[in-house]
Design goal:
Bound molecules: 2-amino-2-deoxy-6-O-phosphono-alpha-D-glucopyranose
Mean pLDDT: 97
Helix content: 25-40%
Low-confidence stretches: none
Oligomer: single chain
Shape: globular
Number of helices: 8
Order of helices and strands: EHEHEEHEHEEHEHEHEH
Amino acid sequence: MRVIVADNYEKLSALAAAEFAAAVGANPRATVMPATGNTPMGMYQELAKLRENDGTDFTGLTVFQLDAYRDIGRDDFRSLYGWMMRSFVEPLGIPEQAVVRLAGDAIDPELECASFEQRVHEAGGIDITILGLGPNGHLGFNEPPSLPDAPTRRVPLTPESLVSNSVYWGGEEQVPTEALTAGMTILLAAKQVLLVVSGESKQGILARTLDGPIAPGNPASYLQQLPNVIVFADRAAWGDRALP
Ligand code: GLP
């Protein structure tokens, strides 16, 4: 695990985008799994600029959806598929056919999760994941407690996640109470993990993720064991500790 502390959110976004663009340059047909949430949005805007200004080509990527609210269709304003399409897939010019959706509204969620895992497996796993850090240590919607071998599955959201996700949708009552999430096995097996963490509110969970016990109570703590993880934090999230 490598940690990069940027002076501010703009620099974090630019550094993370440069890292991702370099990885895509080395493997233009990579499979990627990009988080939604607020933190990577600056990074995605930087990627779009790299595409426009430097001609970086993202069109060969295959995109796998990280997580989805249960029973939310792709056109619902709360759909994480829609958010991923608007913020990542479309600005980077990736064709819609190259997107593997995790259908939160599938009639049979267990079957949906199994066939999603199969698609990931057939693609040879995920080359690059872009993850945010949940305030309770969740990755995607791998809520605590999550074991490192947790598969893609249906999960009830924790009260903490219902509160933290309400900021996206204008009220806690808007937040669906269940989700589907790519499993910990998929995330931890990714060839490269970019974790983006911003803001003072993430100081405690970031410190625990980097230095705390490796345990199901903080799913992100399992990243400590992996060599291929880069954590991009801004100063606000890093706090007053000595720089790495
Ligand atoms: C959400 C999502 C995650 C996201 C995380 C952090 O609940 N399920 O995929 O990475 O929480 O979000 P943010 O970056 O807005 O803090």
